[in-house]
């Protein structure tokens, strides 16, 4: 084994890298906070002005350094520097918005993505087109401006919109895949697929029930036009 010589220079280089990495992550944390504020303003406005809260809960996370490194390797990015990671890995900051009903998922998506300072980079509609395993969610990579003392930055944030039923399914599926280290037995894969259908059926029934109970008036809250095309 080759011995690594620890010199004053290597220590100071390591410290510099650590500081740069922390600064890099902080930019994403700021972007995430901007998105959280936007969602929380929408939630408060809905609660006060429409006497209805379409958001059940909001969860945010910054990708861990290990998980960033793992994704860089999985994507085959060679000699990665901060600029390449910024360009290629767009889910370092993530916000998950869990809504009551599917209609609310799209409403919230529209209300957020149509704000003037937001740029939509990618939309993946896994509700209209679920993944083969049954995964459903509406994903958007958006860019939000962050104003620092050094000037403005445009930070990508992945926002996932889903219903409570979709969230319940995704979190159980995630735990099962983790437990079996991605080698899930066939019968469990089939059960998960059945459960995804049951969750979708529950979403439909609950939304119908809700509309019957409250009428359709609430649906008249329309986002500002034009609507953004979903892919
Ligand atoms: P975490 O810890 O939630 O952040 P990728 O799979 O990331 O290489 P891409 O195109 O970036 O490719 O991903 P995509 O399809 O937009 O989805 C990424 C995120 O969506 C995942 O993040 C999960 O949060 C969620 N997701 C996507 N597919 C599934 C699925 O089949 N089951 C569950 N439970 N979640 C899913 P991370 O980074 O994997 O994890």
Ligand roster:
ligand 0O2
What is the string of SSEs from the N terminus onward?
HEHHEHEEEHH
Number of helices: 6
Rg over C-alpha atoms, rounded to the nearest angstrom = 21 Å
CATH superfamily: Beta Polymerase, domain 2
- Give the domain tally: 1
**Largest sheet features:** 5 strands, mixed
Shape: flat
Structural class of the secondary elements?
A: alpha+beta
* Strand order in the largest sheet: 1-2-5-4-3
Query: Roughly how much helix do the residues carry, as a percent range?
Result: 40-55%
Number of E strands:
5
Level-2 CATH architecture: 2-Layer Sandwich
Q: How far apart, in Å, are the first and last alpha carbons?
A: 52 Å
Structure notes:
The protein is 50% helix and 20% strand. By secondary structure, the protein is of the alpha+beta class. It has a single domain, classed as Beta Polymerase, domain 2 (2-Layer Sandwich). The protein starts with 7 loop residues before the first helix and ends in a 17-residue tail after the last helix. Mean pLDDT is 90; it is low at 226-231. The structure holds ligand 0O2. Residues 91, 94, 124, 131, 133, 135, 139, 170, 173-174 line the site of ligand 0O2.
Features:
231 residues; alpha+beta; Beta Polymerase, domain 2; five-stranded mixed β-sheet; 6 helices; 20% strand; flat; disordered C terminus; binds ligand 0O2
Summarize the SSE layout with pairings.
Blueprint: H1 8-49, E1 55-62, H2 65-74, H3 82-88, E2 93-99, H4 102-113, E3 119-125, E4 138-148, E5 151-163, H5 164-179, H6 186-214
Parallel strand pairs: 2-5
Antiparallel strand pairs: 1-2, 3-4, 4-5
Helix pairs in contact: 5-6
This protein binds ligand 0O2.
Ligand 0O2 binds next to helix 5.
């Amino acid at each position: 084994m080759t011995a690594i010589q620890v010199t004053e220079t290597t220590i100071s280089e390591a410290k510099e890298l650590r500081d740069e990495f922390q600064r890099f992550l902080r930019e994403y944390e700021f972007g995430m906070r901007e998105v959280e504020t936007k969602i929380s303003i929408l939630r408060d406005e809905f609660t006060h002005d429409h006497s209805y809260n379409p958001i059940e809960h909001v969860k945010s996370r910054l990708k861990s350094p290990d998980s960033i490194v793992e994704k860089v390797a999985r994507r085959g990015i060679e000699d990665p520097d901060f600029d390449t990671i910024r360009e290629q890995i767009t889910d370092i900051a993530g916000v998950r918005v869990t809504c009551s009903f599917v209609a609310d998922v799209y409403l919230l998506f529209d209300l957020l993505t149509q704000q003037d300072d937001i740029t939509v980079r990618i939309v993946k509609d896994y509700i209209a087109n679920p993944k083969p395993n049954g995964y459903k969610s509406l994903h958007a990579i958006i860019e939000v401006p962050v104003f620092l003392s050094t000037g403005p930055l445009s930070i990508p944030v992945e926002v996932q919109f889903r219903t409570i039923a979709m969230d319940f399914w995704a979190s159980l599926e995630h735990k099962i895949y983790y437990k079996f280290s991605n080698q899930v037995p066939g019968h469990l894969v089939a059960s998960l697929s059945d459960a995804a259908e049951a969750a979708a059926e529950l979403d439909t029934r609950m939304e119908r029930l809700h509309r019957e109970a409250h009428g359709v008036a609430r649906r008249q809250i329309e986002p500002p036009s034009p609507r953004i095309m979903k892919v």
